[in-house]
Write a structure and sequence with these properties.
Elements (H helix, E strand, L loop, with lengths): L2 H29 L7 H15 L9 H24 L18 H12 L15 H31 L9 H27 L9 E4 L5 E4 L4 H10 L20 H26 L2 H28 L2 H5 L23 H14 L14 H12 L10 H21 L4 E2 L2 E2 L2 H27 L2 H4 L16 H16 L14 H30 L16 H36 L2 H5 L8
Antiparallel strand pairs: 1-2, 3-4
Helix pairs in contact: 1-8, 1-11, 2-6, 3-4, 3-5, 3-17, 4-17, 5-6, 5-7, 5-13, 5-17, 6-7, 6-8, 7-8, 8-9, 8-11, 9-11, 9-12, 9-18, 11-12, 12-16, 12-18, 13-14, 13-18, 14-16, 14-17, 16-17, 16-18
Length: 599
């Protein structure tokens, strides 16, 4: 690692820490129904929304009604997004005349599911598949909607801990409206202008045909990019306007826009920890969760950075310099933008997989085995390393329930968290969420590794399962595993070596996204309803403090141990064995003989 790289990581983390308290306090006031400094400018829009949609602002919902509202909202968004894709040939702002043939039913299902569940997995290239209208009216709108829904679920769970002897946890429609109007929309407008100032494009022009200096003809894609980029990062969505995502110079032109992207990804998840502390009446609880986030993030980023900076020993044995100097970066630069280098690529990969974002400024498929392992394991934790907008907080609160339950078992006491007894129902709901996501990842990965119709998307008893993989061996397995980890974790990034645009992968990854979103959320909302109905009990000398270093260590240990025990066998077949093969000099001979490098 270099001192400049470490400094860049420190600056980024400092910005997130700086923003946590003011934005968190603002969101606490907002979701508690208090007046904020933006109300004079935006209250009219909130009231108009309630009148047009028939929302009763002062009527709260039980957890069952709250869940029903979430499911109906998501189902409507899915159907609307699906139909827009299939009908894009009849809709305006379509200079390339894309039609239904560009988006067959299985791809439309996958994409609609992806954006509704805040995953933004893309089995297509945006600039060669979707019209401007679909990019704006379908995908960008869902970027706002899915992010606002995640914030609403987090706030509902906070109310479960904050309230006592109540049957309601808020109003889903009001929470979504306020999150969109007062948080996502104003920050996105400012971020869009900042992106444009850095050179990101924002237009509705037809694609531009040019002649290059070599005399070749090239088509340069245009479009309303900056506005989608802003909410894609702020809402931890990640779906790029272009196939190259945030490594494309029209999406991410400069180091400043790159820093802005990363700050937008973490700023709301980081601030929601302070919101949590304010709403439960003890800001120390929020800072403890922020500390747990930070420990896991910093471990991941420095492991990833050090691995990428160390590079590939096989190339070093061939005489290629791997040490950074003043004139070359050293390390593993494969798949990375020279504009950003190794430090910012490793940082971006850790940020985007720690959050449920999925935007990429480098290709994770080209990372070293340990670098790729960090990205994959970040998602396997349940996206609780800051996590997505709302998703990170409600995910870590699930692990808080498990952590105090484990601590209670060790000392023989009924576990408590924030004055609420954690009993059978809450633990069952937490375990259901953990088991459902692990089942989705492991079962779909196993099936796709062995059955023959995974290869071309249709049943073919003679076809090899790995026919649409760029690599065989452990790295090929990692490409399959990462796809289902990303889908179930609602992340959306990919190793990139898997040809996923087939009926099999579109359908199964789409199902994994539904499992990862709703079989995680519904148990948590059930737990929120149960917790809100309970009476708070006073702390005693035997109560485990949940705001100090001991609890932070217990929480981090619970997250890492649960993830390690669940996924270690699968990781052993992929990045772990690949790492040892690389250092034994046999990597290329096993997984990429086409490169012609044998040892």
């Amino acid at each position: 690692m270099t001192s400049v790289g470490v400094l860049q990581i420190g600056i980024f983390f400092g910005l997130i820490l700086l923003c946590a308290k003011p934005l968190g306090a603002y969101m606490a006031r907002l979701f508690e129904g208090q007046r904020t400094f933006l109300h004079p400018a935006l209250r009219w829009l909130e009231v108009l929304t309630y009148k047009v949609t028939g929302i009763r602002e002062n009527v709260e919902q039980r957890w069952t009604h709250y869940t029903g509202a979430l499911l109906s909202f998501s189902l409507f968004g899915f159907l609307l997004t699906y139909l827009m894709q299939r009908a894009q040939g009849l809709l305006p702002f379509n200079p390339r005349h894309f039609g239904a043939a560009n988006v067959p039913p299985d791809l439309a299902f996958n994409t609609a599911t992806s954006f509704v569940t805040n995953t933004n997995w893309q089995a297509y290239g945006g600039e060669s598949t979707l019209s401007y209208f679909v990019q704006m009216a379908a995908l960008t709108v869902q970027n706002f909607a899915s992010a606002a829904a995640g914030m609403a679920i987090a706030v509902a769970l906070i109310r479960g801990f904050a309230r006592q002897e109540r049957r309601t946890i808020g109003n889903f429609w009001v929470d979504v409206t306020r999150g969109t109007i007062y948080v996502l929309l104003p920050i996105s407008v400012i971020a869009t202008l900042l992106y444009v100032s850095q050179g990101a494009i924002q237009n509705l022009k037809p694609y531009t045909d040019v002649v290059t200096l070599e005399g070749a003809r090239q088509t340069i894609a245009q479009g309303p990019v900056a506005s989608q980029e802003a909410i894609k990062q702020l809402g931890t969505n990640g779906g790029g306007f272009f196939n190259a995502n945030a490594s494309h110079p029209f999406e991410n032109p400069t180091p400043i826009s790159n820093l802005l992207s990363m700050v937008l990804i973490f700023v709301i998840p980081g601030a929601l920890t302070y919101t949590f502390g304010k709403m439960v009446g003890d800001t120390r609880q929020g800072w403890a969760i922020f500390a747990a986030f930070s420990v896991m993030f910093l471990i991941g980023v420095f492991v990833c950075y050090s691995s990428e900076q160390a590079g590939n020993p096989l190339l070093e044995n061939l005489g290629i310099q791997s040490t950074a100097t003043q004139i070359q970066p050293g390390g593993n630069m494969e798949g990375k933008e020279v504009r950003f280098g190794i430090a910012n690529s490793a940082l971006y990969a850790t940020v985007t997989t720690g959050a449920s974002c999925g935007a990429v400024n480098s290709m994770h498929d080209s990372f070293t085995p340990v670098g790729g392992l960090v990205a994959m394991f970040n998602i396997m934790t349940g996206e609780v390393i800051f996590g997505g907008v709302g998703a990170g907080l409600y995910g870590i609160l699930l692990y808080c329930i498990l952590a105090v339950f484990i601590a209670g078992l060790m000392v023989g006491r009924t576990p408590e968290y924030l004055g609420k007894k954690i009993e059978q129902k809450e633990v069952k709901m937490a375990m259901l969420a953990v088991i459902a996501t692990a089942f989705s990842i492991l079962v779909f990965s196993a099936l796709s590794s062995v059955i023959s119709f995974a290869a071309k998307g249709y049943w073919n008893p003679l076809g090899p399962a790995a026919a649409n993989l760029s690599n065989s061996g452990p790295h090929g397995f990692s490409e399959i595993l990462y796809a289902y980890v990303s889908g179930t974790g609602n992340n959306g990034s990919a190793f990139g070596g898997l040809g996923a645009n087939t009926p099999w992968y579109n359908l199964t990854i789409g199902l994994a996204m539904w499992v990862g979103r709703f079989l995680f959320l519904i148990p948590l909302l059930a737990a929120a309803g149960s917790l809100a109905a309970k009476k708070k009990i006073p702390a005693t000398s035997g109560t485990l403090p949940t705001h100090g270093p001991l609890f932070v260590g217990l929480l981090v240990g619970t997250v890492l141990i649960v993830g390690a025990l669940t996924f270690f066998p699968a990781l052993s077949l992929g990045p772990i064995v690949e790492h040892y093969l690389m250092h034994s000099g046999k990597l290329f001979s096993m997984i990429s003989p086409s490169l012609g490098v044998w040892s």
